[in-house]
Each structure stands twice: as structure tokens, then as C-alpha cells.
Amino acid sequence: MKPSFFDLTYDDLKALLVEKGFSPFGATQMFDWVYRKWEHDPQEWSNVSKAAKEFFTENYDFSLLKIVWNGLSKDGTRKFLVKMNDGQTVETVAIPARERLTLCVSSQVGCAVGCTFCHTATQGLKRHLKTSEVVLQYITVQKFLNDLGEGDALTNIVYMGQGEPLHNYENMKKATQIFMAERGLALGQRRITLSTSGMVPAIEKLAIDFPTVNIAISLHSARNDVRTELMPINKVYDLERLFGAIKKIPLKAHRRITYEYLLIDGVNDQMEDVLALADLLNSKESKINLIPMNEYPGSKYKRPSEAKIMWFLDQMIKRGFTCTVRTTKGSDILAACGQLKSEFEKVNLWDDKKPVIIPGIASSVLQNLQS
Predict the structure, then answer these.
(1) Which is the CATH superfamily of the domain at 66-368?
(2) Please, are residues 230 and 263 in contact by the beta-carbon 8 Å criterion?
């Protein structure tokens, strides 16, 4: 099987061209064709040498991921189930908001962290995604949107899909370099957000060799006993170790750290949780993003009432914190935070001409399936 062109960073491509006897300046033209002009057939690269075009045609794969299902939420969120060459699938979600369209990207097939509130955790970890499989989520979805002819352009990326991004550190680093390459997609550092459950050794490496992007920490509790119940990773990397690593992240580059806090009814939404959170975080260096629990089939946790959500928000604001409540998007198609899961192995062969029901997705959603 040919390696994917989308595994190559700009520097990788330049080095490969030199190794094969071509001009390194060809990397600029190739990245322009692939990432700006959306031309993935080397034979159409008019300003690239014939020999180079033949080399890449013969030796590299330019195919995109296969979209085996997509669902459109009533709020405009669109979820995609995409298939890799080995038959494994992941979900990626395009989330509309005012003046932006954010792609929620997956980093692994499944996840090994095992957060007890997360649907992805129920399938365990099957494998890391390759660099190309991360990049191709963006390319595949953008091409889909281009083909719709609606003029929608992805503007932001969040590494908040299936998997723990820092568990797949090297591939996510390379994918980020490709996303940010000036000669390619040229996404600015403020348009990419990496979310982690708290892998301390990898967090300590972020400031050393990972491209500068926004950082979000999945915190969910400022009390070790509660956080351990929600996130088994806290047994290894407890709050003391986690915040020891966070303090090493240079805030001049990252501005503020965002702390994601999943509000769960009766678990982490009490006054003692408010006080612990206010005591743990620095209000000048932190932003708190409250995420009301998104329930899924079989979930043991429940969403707090709207009154309790607003109470918690008000308590943090009164204590001087920048605090927001994340708007739930795509819950009717299980596309909201914590609801993603690869479902392909649970259904029969896909029929490209007909929508197929995925277990757990309401039948009413079928009205929005795009064949």
C-alpha cells in the first residue's frame, strides 16, 4: 500500500524532494496545489516537473477518507462517520457558530483513558490515527462542504473528538504542523485548540516541541476523589502533578488555559465543588468552560437542571473568573461533547445510496441524512 501524501509535513516534503533529486522549491508548489487549490491529482500540477509528477503519482496515495454516513442536526451541526483504509472508522463533527465553522477532530480509534462519562470510552482503544488520517478529516469534510456548493469554509479546529490527542503525540504534532503550514492551510495558532485529559509527561513536552496552539484541560472536578471517579487517569496524574505540569506552559504564548468542566447532576455541581475550583485556579490565567452533561444511551450520569447550571456559572463569575457555558450542539445526532463513538462495526455493509440506522441515533434524524 502506498504511503499517504498527507503524512508529509512541508519540511518532510522538501527533504524527500532533495533525496529524490528534485528541487526543494517544488514543495511550495505542491502544498499550494493540494491544500489551497484542492487538486489532488499530481498530473494536473501544471508548474511541477513531469518527473516529479510521475514520482508522486506512482509512489504516493492522494485519496481522501470515505464518508460512510453523515447526519445533519437541527442546529446545523453535521456529524461524519469516516472510514480509513483498514476499515476502521471515527467520527468528526463540523460545528457552526457565529462567523466560524469549527471541525472537531478525532485523534484515535476509541480511547484508552476511560473517562466514565464519555461514550467513546465504552469502545476502548483500537489504534492511534496516522498523521494523514487526522489531516484528512479536515480535507474530506471541507471537500464535502465545497461539493454542497453552500460556500461553508472550515475556520477552526479543536482536538476534542475521539481519543486523547497527547496519547498520540507525534502524529498530532505533525498534523498540527501541516494545518499551520504557511504554504498550506495556514491556520493560525488561535484557530487550533488541543484538549487533553491530563497526560502530564506530554503536557511537559508541549512547550518544547509542539506548535503553539490554544490549550484546554479536561478538568471536570477540583477534588481528587471526584476527578478519579470521573477520570481514572487522575489515579496516575492527580491534580498536584497535573498543575505542576500546567505551570510549565508559557502563558505569554497561550494567553490563558481553558479548563473544561463537565457539569454532572449531583456529582460535581455543589458549593463544595465551586469552592474547590475557585481555590485551585488562578482567575487571571484561567478560563472556565462549563459543559452540561450530554447524555447518551446507557449513560449513568445526568444533566443538571438549567437553574443549577446558571447557579454554578454565577458562583464562578462572582469569584472573578471568566466563565462560560458551552452551547450544546448536535445532541440529536449524538454529536455533542462526550457522545462520539465509532459505530461502523455495529452495522451491516453500507449502501451508498441509502441512509443506514446507527444504534442509538433517533429515527427522526433519518430525515436529515444525506445520501
Answers:
(1) Aldolase class I (3.20.20.70)
(2) no
